[in-house]
Amino acid sequence: MTKISELKVGELLPEVKLPPVSRLDLIKYAGASGDYNPIHTIDEEAKKAGLPGIIAHGMWTMGNLAKLFTPYYEEGFVQDYSVRFKSMVFLNDVVTLKATVKEKEDHALRFDVAAVNQDGKEVVKGEVVFSVY
């Protein structure tokens, strides 16, 4: 595995493809986060809210994006992390996580990050600053 500090501008981290989003994933996340909004776990409530079905918590998707950096925590840490939610994630969606080096400074790399569904649609887009020890 390449060290994160050896990456150059324009290079990508290995993509992470998540398993299909399951109801159990969202129930577990609701319990862990305290976000019990029923649009995330109960079909009828999501439909009452005008949605075609339950949707994943935006923060569930954002949290999963951090998995891109897990293999590199011995080299440094995520110093800054910001995202914009662009679209909804539904049950059974397959989300792929991506990161590209945007800038490189002495002890920090700035990445463009994105979560993309199985149709190639960006659902989350953002930026991560990873500081190297």
UniProtKB/TrEMBL annotation:
Domain of life: Bacteria
Entry GO terms, CC: fatty acid synthase complex
GO biological process: fatty acid biosynthetic process
SUPFAM superfamilies: Thioesterase/thiol ester dehydrase-isomerase (SSF54637)
Domain MaoC-like: 20-114
Single GO molecular function: fatty acid synthase activity
Signal sequence interval, chain numbering: none
Protein name (record): MaoC-like domain-containing protein
Species of origin: Saccharococcus caldoxylosilyticus
Lineage: Bacteria, Bacillati, Bacillota, Bacilli, Bacillales
